[in-house]
Design brief:
By secondary structure, the chain is of the alpha/beta class. It has a single domain, classed as Alpha-Beta Barrel (TIM Barrel). About 35% of the residues lie in helices and about 15% in strands. It is built from 9 helices and 8 strands. Strands 1-2-3-4-5-6-7-8 form an 8-stranded parallel barrel, surrounded by 6 helices. Strand 6, helix 7 and strand 7 form a beta-alpha-beta unit. Helix 5 runs parallel beside helix 6. The longest helix has 18 residues. The chain is elongated, with a radius of gyration of 22 Å.
Length: about 260
């Protein structure tokens, strides 16, 4: 698709209904992201999500789709300690979670982990720019690559991940011109999130794009629907009808069986 200039669509989803709808919509890839920590589990950051959590959500998605490439995030702590640990945990995501590929964050030591996982026969997607697992180290959830030094570091990390065997690289929250230069530099696709239109593809979180996220959302999010207000209206109507006795109606109930007749 990169060679043809075709744009790649990717959605971050976590459960069976979402996966089925994304599949039906024709997206090329579904990411089971560690963002499940904040979107589904009520945690403050992605750091707290566990491998067991990721396996549950990965299975829900992989059981429910037939066509999209399913990429599963390796959670914090599952690949950082050593190559051996990284390979063992990546194998779990494939064997137990049904993942087609895994994603790891960062450059530097992560490049070595990516290489080890690829050598074990598992496809790896890289992730540079704003890497949420390292947000504290990066100074918080802020755009990356805005200075020449930062931009060069991100470009170097992306190139190193490609050399390590990554089949694609996520670019998150980097200036559009930096992402364009990296995309032109790489032979593998780039998937942007807050990285401008020049990336080979785009990814958004399910809840964000459907308008289900409450409170602050990053400036790169576009809500393509308003399901949050619609869901709230439906719930308000349900509560009102239960309290008033309007629900359930006769058509929502069952009658007794007629007794057998001779």
């Amino acid at each position: 698709m990169k060679a043809r200039g075709d744009r790649i669509t990717m959605v971050t989803a976590y459960d069976a209904p979402s996966a089925r709808l994304a599949d039906a919509a024709g997206v090329e890839s579904i990411l089971v992201g560690d963002s499940v920590a904040t979107t589904m589990l009520g945690l403050d950051s992605t750091v707290g999500v566990t491998m067991e959590d990721m396996l549950v959500f990965a299975r829900a998605v992989t059981r429910s789709v037939t066509r999209p490439l399913v990429v599963v995030d390796m959670p914090f702590g599952s690949f950082q300690p050593s190559d051996e640990v990284a390979v063992r945990q990546a194998v779990r995501l494939v064997k137990e979670g049904g993942a087609h590929a895994v994603k790891i964050e960062g450059g530097g030591p992560s490049t070595l982990r990516a290489s080890a996982i690829v050598e074990a026969g598992i496809p790896v997607m890289g992730h540079v720019g704003l890497t949420p697992q390292s947000a504290v180290k990066l100074g918080g959830y802020r755009p990356q690559g805005r200075t020449p030094v930062e931009a060069q570091r991100i470009a170097n990390d992306a190139a190193a991940l490609e050399r390590a065997g990554c089949f694609a690289i996520v670019l998150e929250a980097v200036p559009a011109d930096v992402a364009a230069a990296i995309t032109a530099q790489l032979t593998v696709p780039t998937i942007g999130i807050g990285a401008g239109p020049a990336c080979d593809g785009q990814v958004l979180v399910w809840h964000d794009l459907l308008g289900l996220t409450e409170g602050h959302v990053p400036r790169f999010v576009k809500a393509f629907g308003a399901l949050g207000p619609a869901a709230r209206a439906a719930l308000d109507a349900y509560v009102a009808e239960v309290r008033s006795g309007a629900f359930p109606e006769a058509r929502h109930t069952y009658g007794a069986l007629e007794p057998d007749r001779p």
